[in-house]
Amino acid sequence: MKRKVVEDLIFKKAPVYQMDEVNDNRVVSNGNRGSGRKFYVYALIVIAGSVLVLGLFVLLSSTFSRVSVMVLTTNREIILDDLVPLNKDGAGGGIKYEMMSLKEMESGYVPTSGNKLVSKYATGIVTIYNSFSPASQILVAGTRLETTDGKIYKIDKTVSIPGMSSVAVSVKAGEAGVKYNIPPTNFTIPGLKDSPKFSKIYAKSVKDISGGWSGELKVASSADITKTRLNLQDSLKKKLIKKALAETPKGFLLWEDGMLISFSDNTIDNSSLIGADGDKMNLQVNGVLRAIMILEDDLKNFIVAKKKAELVGGTKFVIDNPGKLSFKILNKDKINTDGTSSVLARITGKQYIMWDFDESSLKNKLSGVKRSKYQDVFKEFPAIEEAAAVFYPSWAFYFPIDTNRIEIALAPKEGVDLK
């Protein structure tokens, strides 16, 4: 008997037959044909899905991303030491200023040492008007002014009132006493009564005339009053300055040297005091602050105009912080607190002036730009020397289409690391 070879013992897989419905014949089927078709379809689905995901990724990157851009422009350090004229309307190359007015009061007790008969004349400021003719009208010191109820006040110095104009002058009551403490009122000039000038040359007060007194008062030592007064004034000054700085309107600049502070109290002759209580007198010190304020933009424009020769190549500029400049008024003793005086100030210090650019235009050009290409956009803006962008999320490929999602900040000065 012959030995069977190993290969003969291996059972081969029988071919798969399908019935031919037409000829009722068996046809051999290729088992790999269906698998190939499925793989092809699967591959197409994967590719299409990947394209869709990539498209959505790009869309989200340019729609919901956010970008912060730091820009460094051409800049210069400018040294300032210039005189700045300030006036009420900004005429003649000057800067317009406005006055802030604040009031505060502090009080303290001073020990008394006896009584004293005191008489004091009320004083104040009035404005005299000349609407009679274009010619000036001179009124000598001591000229009487009369209220409608017959109270007499006298001007303290000779004045000349220009035609069709007015002049402010100090007045003093004709008699001592509290009855001459009056609110704002109108005055005639008795000396012109029989003249056609009488109705055309007249006076008005806009503030109280005050300080009049007649009677017995408690008295204290001059040294005690002075010591208490100085302490109260120092406290008032700090309070007024703090309040002025806190209440400076947005866009305005205010310096301490531009603050004019005046004090008044209820003492008479630096020894007597109205309102004494028993063996103590209550010293009341009133403080009034009037501060000169200017618009920050006006000062910036003034600086640019002054330094125009050093700013070649730029048309629009950003100034670092003009509020840091030193500001000193040179004619403080000649300033009226009503805000009508011409003021001469001196500004000194250093400022960085940076070339500016059209931020809106830059945002529009960056909108939807590919991350790898945004530096080319900055080259279109001559004022920009360096720029860097930080993307949120960090994997975003494109700048947002919505320009509101692009934030642009100007680097404060040369030397900022934008890497």
Please summarize what this structure is.
This protein has 419 residues and is α+β, with helices and mostly antiparallel strands. It has 4 domains: 1-60; 61-76 and 355-410; 79-108 and 216-309 and 320-350, no CATH class; 118-215, Beta Barrel (Elongation Factor Tu (Ef-tu), domain 3), CATH 2.40.30.
Structural features, described:
It is built from five helices and 24 strands. By secondary structure, it is α+β, with helices and mostly antiparallel strands. The strands form six sheets. Strands 4, 5, 15, 18, 19, 20, 21 and 22 form an eight-stranded mixed beta sheet that branches. The longest helix has 31 residues. The protein is elongated and about 125 Å long.
